[in-house]
Amino acid sequence: MLRTLGRTLREADYKVTAVVVDDVLIAVEPGDTTGRRFGIAFDLGTTTVVATLLDLSTGTPAAVESTLNKQQPFGADVITRISATMMDPGALDKLQQLATETLGELARAVCEQGGVAPDEVYEIAVAGNATMTHIVLGIDPSRSAWRRSSWQPGATRGARGRPGAGGRGAPRAARWCSPRSARTWAATSRPGC
């Protein structure tokens, strides 16, 4: 953002919108862009993944898409996916890549359906069971004592993603929700953890 800040300010005659997520300035945009703010809420299930594009100003859904989770070849449930990470040292990277591909395709689909440019998506929230959350974050679920009743997931409050993480056109901020912190995001005015 700092690389383009001076040019943006001059070209917009210093009439800009500062985009702040929590306490972090993530963008400075020319003109008044406050009327178009969107977020994407994902439900990352073992079988099906659902993406909901939300208008952050009103909290209303602008588009909804679902697809089968691309991790299916590694098993239909979390136990077989955990077993895959235990049996194959490269499985976690493959599973994470497949989850990321699934989320990326759904993000593009809901943006297209809702008539929203990717740079109008400011936040995403991803909710899933503990194993799915671990995998998408690249945390090995087999290393946790998941069989014990006192098991604590590696991420319980939501982990902040790096702004722009995930490549070109990726939302600028991300929240990863574990079951303990995930809320009913579809009814809220802003997806979050």
Features:
single chain; 193 residues; alpha/beta; Nucleotidyltransferase, domain 5; 2 domains; six-stranded mixed sheet; two-stranded antiparallel ribbon; 4 helices; 8 strands; elongated
Overview of the structural elements:
By secondary structure, the chain is of the alpha/beta class. The chain folds into 2 domains: 1-34, no CATH class; 36-187, Nucleotidyltransferase, domain 5. It has helices at residues 2-11, 78-87, 91-114, 130-137, and strands at residues 16-21, 24-30, 38-44, 48-55, 61-68, 121-128, 159-160, 173-177. The strands form 2 sheets. It has a 6-stranded mixed β-sheet with strand order 5-4-3-6-8-7. It is elongated. Mean pLDDT is 80; it is low at 147-151, 162-170 and 176-193.
Strand order of the largest sheet: 5-4-3-6-8-7
CATH class of the largest domain: Alpha Beta
Number of helices: 4
Biggest sheet: strands, sense, closure? 6 strands, mixed
Provide mean pLDDT, rounded.
Answer: 80
For CATH, the homologous superfamily of the largest domain is named as Domain of unknown function (DUF4445)
Quaternary state of this entry equals single chain
Which second-level CATH architecture of the largest domain applies? 2-Layer Sandwich
Radius of gyration: 18 Å
Point out poorly predicted stretches. Answer: 147-151, 162-170, 176-193
Give the SSE order as H and E letters.
Answer: HEEEEEHHEHEE
Query: How far apart, in Å, are the first and last alpha carbons?
Result: 26 Å
Q: How many domain modules?
A: 2
Overall geometry comes to elongated
